[in-house]
Amino acid sequence: MAKNKIRDWLEVRIGLDELLKSQLTEYRVPKQINVFNALGSVALAGYLIQVISGIFLMIYYIPHSEHAFRSVQEIMTRVPYGWLFRQIHVVGSNLMITAVTLHMVTIFLMGNYKRPRELTWIGGGIMMVITFLFGLSGYLLPWTQLSYWATTVVTSLPTAFPFFGDFATRLLRGGDYVSGITLTRFFAVHVSVLPPLFMILMGVHIALIRRIGLSSTPFGKTDEEKRPLTEFRKKTHPEGHAYYPYLFQKQVLMVICYFLIMFSIITFAPTFFFPEEASVPADAFKTPENIRPEWYFLAPYQMLKLIPNKFLGISLQIILLFVFIFWPFLDVQKEKNIFKRPVLRGVFIFLMISWVILMWWGRR
Q1: What is the distance between the alpha carbons of residues 258 and 271, in angstroms, rounded to a whole number?
Q2: Crossing angle for the helix pair 165-173 and 180-188, nearest 10 degrees?
Q3: Most Cβ neighbours (<10 Å): which of 127, 221, 224, 289?
């Protein structure tokens, strides 16, 4: 009875039945849609997990250089279930980066960045950059030897640029060296700047997907390429399936897989993302023998080591990032199917193999 009253109350005020019909049961998705189309939902679920676990950690964490390491150790050893929430946050950050990267790769392979989805792709690319910045800013917070010296290396990169390079490095560090001021700044960026930016972009991203509609064929042409640039026509897919339960079930399945992977790592490989240096407090007077970034920065890190000129190496990586984000405007071919484009397919395979080799090389 109480359930019906709540439902009636919502029905009067927001038109609940109409909302559920238009957004779930009557919202059609293409027949050819598959689990790879659910990777965006996995990334969103991953972000929500990070927010929830991050709020818990923030209650006990002290963003001060004299207390940060100790507060993290107390979270792991004394706070009830603190170890679990920190493991979820650390493992979740790595899995979220993996999910976002896989989402962008599959969208690229399916050619779903082509018009009219240029802005959707650019928004996704910027969100991927923000996800990496989440990882970078959060890496320093435990205030360990590993995080301290890795941050020292990363924040020194802008010095390769004349005129404003030194200023940018001091701005990031809050001085000439990584210190407690750097920790405070990274903490502020991690919890106050990046989350609202990510949520705004996520809202715009979902709104664009809903307005334009999902792409109908993963590996083939659609009638979109034949439309005039000035014409808008939402793809409704009347021959397709209802979003609920067809795509919704796939999204739930992928999120469950995400949780299974996360808790498998926490259960069977709890130190997988915690190398030995991550258990040693930061010491500005003792440089570790091996300084290397997290796995998702290993490839660009190794590339910088191979290119003798620091300015050239960083400039090349910035150019590659811009090419990636604005790729929809550079790819003028109408063919979406990458299997019918040998040159693009070859470049893609070359870049993927190069990326894996650089990661492996940087890890050694």
Answers
A1: 19
A2: 90
A3: 127
Cα–Cα distances in angstroms (integers) from residue 114 to residues 199, 203, 328, 333, 342, in the given order: 24, 20, 6, 9, 18
Residue 193 CB-half CA count within 13 A: 12
CA 91 to CA 202: how far, in whole Å?
22
What are the pLDDT digits (tens) for 126-164?
Answer: 999 999 999 999 999 999 998 999 999 899 989 988 888
Exposed/middle/buried for residue 80 (C-beta within 10 Å: 0-12, 13-18, 19+): exposed
Q: Are 69 and 143 in contact (CB under 8 A)?
A: yes
Q: How far apart are the first and last CA of the chain?
A: 64
Question: Hey, what amino acid is at 31?
Answer: K
**Token pair listed for 244:** 């609920």
DSSP state of 243: I
How many CB atoms neighbour CB 2 within 10 A? Answer: 6
Over residues 95-118, the pLDDT tens digits come to 999 999 999 999 999 888 988 899
